[in-house]
Amino acid sequence: MLRVIGQVLFLLLIAAGIWWLLNNLQNNLQAIGLRIGFSFLKNTAGFPISEGIPYNPTDVNGYAFWVGIVNTLRVAVIGIVLATALGTVVGVARLSSNWLVKKLAGIYVEIVRNIPLLVQLFFWYFAVMVTALPMVGNAIRLPGPTYLSRRGVYLPWATPTDSFRTWMFYVLGGLVLAIIVYVLRRVQLKRAERPGFPIVWAVIALVLAGAGGWFLTSGSPLALSVPVLQKFNFVGGLWLSTSFTALVMGLSVYTGAFIAEIVRAGILAVSKGQTEAARAVGLKRVQVLRLVILPQALRVIIPPLASQYLNLTKNSSLAILIGYYDLMNVGTTIFNQTGRAVEMILLIMASYLTMSLLTSLLMNYYNRRMKLVER
Amino acid sequence: MNDRQQERHAPEEQLPPPTERIPVLRWLRQNLFSSWLNAILTVIAAAVIAAVALGLLRWALGARWAVIPANLKLLLVGTYPLQYIWRVWVAVYIITFLVGLSSGSHGGLMRRISVTMALVSVVFAILPFPWATRAWLGGIALSEVVGFGLGYLGRGNRWYKRAEIGLWILSFPIILVFLNGVGGFLPVVAGRTTWGFMLNLIGAAVGIALSFPIGVLLALGRRSKLPVIRWVCTAYIELIRGVPLISLLFMASIMLQLLLPATVRPDLVIRAMMTITAFTAAYMAENVRGGLQAIPRGQYEAAYAVGLNGTLTTMLIILPQALRLVIPAIVGQFIALFMDTTLFGFIAILELLNITRSIMGNLEWRGTIFELYVFIGVVFWVVCYSMSYISRRIEKTVGVGER
Fold it and tell me: Is B135 at the interface with chain A, CB within 8 A?
């Protein structure tokens, strides 16, 4: 009985607090003559966004915000791929039997983890990209050809040609085929009670279909576009802006250090006896790795890895401080233009919360599946 | 496990394991050139280290380091009025005195920390600073020695122990009031003062002191048997953890004034500290919850069996064990909080990172961007690395993972 009363009181207290805040909000908004509403999203944005999916200052605020969301996802996906690659290499290097390699990896991790991310981002952006790199006229040429300059990075890039649509049909067909192969192989493995990775077969099917389509389509579906220096700037190829490059570099170098520690812990979590026992029952080296070590290490690695991916996505909001138009930056710009504080904060937070919730749902699903495998 | 227990019971009977002497050549062969692949890796790693080290050295020799001493005061304490600067030093002395006090009575790790601090201050005092600064620096070592003496005399005394803990807790508000000033007694430092690196330190200290208890309460709330409390705590934790800190700071800077009555307008710095506390508390709660989950049911049952009630069980049996388990995670969170104070710049607070912009804007110091960022990086690195080093030592002394 006392417990019920206590909880009711607690709830009332919280409700009263929220009511008080909302009441203040209403009074304050009335004082400046604003009313909460999202119709401003249909007004013309009127500010430029220099990169991302096609966008015009004449587009509406709502679409501008969407451009910001896509830009956030773009940084997050590329950052996650690079950070994972870097983290895996460094994590394995930290366990190397080579003393020098081990120390080098250790120094990297200890330096990067103990310096604030924002300091690192500022370093990449203000010091490296904007100050140290040459002007566009004497851009540094890397093989590819890739050009580095204060304007950003220019990469060679494949652009679709007229026959691209025809080829896409083959690719789509290949995707369907891959799913069928995946399901069939999985059922087959399950019946035979054998472990394995059916995804490998699916990928092979997809690649075969794509390659076959490439030869069957008349004319190459993709053409290589190479950046060429014109009078003032490069033309062609893919342009990565200064702030985008700095953001991706900073985020992947920073998160890579954390991922390295996760990978290292995951590998250490599989005891040596497992390897020895697997070898003793006659598995080959590759099989030991594929069937014994990886499944166990991944179970330890993946949950913290997912939270690192989420951290990287949330940290990408620092983009606003180096001028990249992610959702935080576009959101605050819309706020500056319209004065809609409450609505924009709600939208920004809802966007990040959606990403977090989706990730944690996926993680819960993964953990449940992993639990079933447990002895 | 057995060995370790034996070691505890009879440390003097155990000799350290014999150290094998390995000739240099054999060590090189085993660790660097054991196979072809390893040899190639060694060469590549050596080349990378050499290139980076050479590049750094060449740059460091040509860099304009003058920018750091010339702006040192601005970087460390911002525009804190020069005539009141003694208050900053006294605040430092209060802390170093307490460190000395604890090192005198505890020894071990505490003693090592205080010796390091004293040595560093003496080394700095030898550097060519103005004489006044040198004298102030020397005061650090002096205050520590005084504290050490008092602590050494008082060690073992029950009342002394309580006084020491009380002093540590009291020092916190005293320092804050002292730095900021009180009406009538100490002149209040103007509200528009920028604090520089001092703000990062104070922000982190306030954040740590407040977010820890709130985090523990949230963690207990999330594991509560009362559904309403559990839901509220879970919702709070997940909401905060789902959004970036910068969006919360944005909210604190523009929306908080809409949520509060027109008469209440907290200072921007206070708002920033509230935000970082609320943010870190959610993460802290998850760390503590991890520790709570690791405590076996038997501990609860045994506590109830000897007649402790729920509150006492939590306070005396469960929390101490749970917190000990998660010391590394909690210290990691403190380090993250300290590093997060650099985000205060986003809402136009002039902390260490943001204050460099005004230096770069100064024509005299144009192009010293690398020097400044390297300096900031080193400052943060030293503080964060020391914190994680100390946490590792504490872990060893309290024996995490040894039972």
Answer: no
